[in-house]
Design a protein that fits this description.
The protein is of the alpha/beta class. It has five helices and ten strands; from the N terminus they run H-E-E-H-E-H-E-E-H-E-E-H-E-E-E.
């Protein structure tokens, strides 16, 4: 998780984690359940950080998206989704105080217009409940109502330690908005 968040080096010879993610997807592309997400015309949009972006700040989702495009998994990276108002960092908040999908939605804006993309894949480093991705997808859907919007995260959290059996478990899941305003991710 730390290697993903910091885009640290893994393997020998050293390889940035963002490159490892992209190369692993490219190498296993035909057998991955989310292979259809990465088409030649797909626009990759990195999810914004919880804080306002500062110059020269490490942005792991942008690095992952860039590595994916460099390996042929998408058309281009368009960092059009921006945080206009900071929200508390979910990883540092107790579960009941994490920002909701609505709070993420309200704190984001679309900075640059694309010319009617057919497909957008939001790229995130780690997904917990999915509130950030849900808020981001809905903000993009306001601007691109005819576009198919999906999300990819390099890692998902697992709350129940009994369900954790290995590091590499590619999967497709869903994120839905509960009546309470919380996001629910399965798996």
């Amino acid at each position: 998780m730390i290697a993903i968040k910091k885009d640290g080096f893994v393997e020998d010879p050293p390889l940035l984690m963002s490159q490892w993610v992209a190369q692993t997807i490219q190498r296993n592309r035909t057998s991955l359940p989310f292979a259809s997400f990465f088409q030649p015309n797909t626009i990759l949009v990195p999810t914004p950080k919880s804080s306002l972006m500062q110059p020269d700040t490490l942005w792991a989702p942008e690095r992952i998206a860039t590595a994916l495009v460099r390996t042929g998994l998408g058309k281009e990276v368009v960092p059009c989704l921006v945080r206009v108002k900071p929200v508390p960092k979910a990883a540092l908040s107790v579960p009941t105080e994490r920002p909701t999908a609505a709070e993420h939605y309200e704190s984001m804006g679309v900075q640059r217009r694309l010319s009617k993309p057919d497909e957008i894949v939001l790229v995130d480093d780690i997904v917990t409940r999915g509130a950030t991705l849900l808020g981001a997808a809905n903000r993009l859907a306001d601007v691109f109502p005819q576009t198919r919007i999906r999300a990819f995260a390099a890692m998902r959290t697992i709350s129940n330690p009994d369900e954790f059996d290995r590091l590499y478990v590619p999967c497709v899941g869903t994120i839905e908005l509960r009546a309470s305003g919380d996001a629910l991710r399965r798996p």
